[in-house]
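Q: What does the assembled structure look like for these inputs?
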Amino acid sequence: KNEVEQSPQNLTAQEGEFITINCSYSVGISALHWLQQHPGGGIVSLFMLSSGKKKHGRLIATINIQEKHSSLHITASHPRDSAVYICAVLKGFRRYNNNDMRFGAGTRLTVKP
Amino acid sequence: EAGVTQFPSHSVIEKGQTVTLRCDPISGHDNLYWYRRVMGKEIKFLLHFVKESKQDESGMPNNRFLAERTGGTYSTLKVQPAELEDSGVYFCASSQGTGVEQYFGPGTRLTVT
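A:
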């Protein structure tokens, strides 16, 4: 079983819809990343968070350390948001050593006009 | 500021051949990481350089893979001889320190036939 589980695996939405992607992890972490990968493209880091909530434009990321759960929300979704969204955690409690990164399998989001 | 770059973007080789992938990190980033995503699986860590030294190579699948970072700037990942199961997308990332955000390159898609 993967230490990082994402749901759903695939998500199709209509333009304008509010979208939520979930990430649960089973190990102690020092931080969690939300990454975005466009078709044929590289990976872009959207957020890195270790507590609470972060907002950037229409994107909001939250994390609950006690419940070992994070969510990525997209408000007023748009076709250009179509991409694979990947949750990744930095294992361990000490921030000095962040090579031990574990990735979820990704959520493929398609936003239709 | 230039981001992380990788070359080539796509490589198609026959089983048994050798391929060398290159990663140029963001200037000034001492930490460089190699990751791999094979078809249908999540991204997995391969190894981590701090400057020219291998900090952690526990994710390297076998001795057919050799990574170098001479001079602590760009890095190469050589696969020799390539096998069919080596097909996938190889990502490189860099960071200024540890425990901080990593910046990913566009990836190299390797196809072994």
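Residues 38 and 53 of chain B are 26 Å apart (CA to CA).
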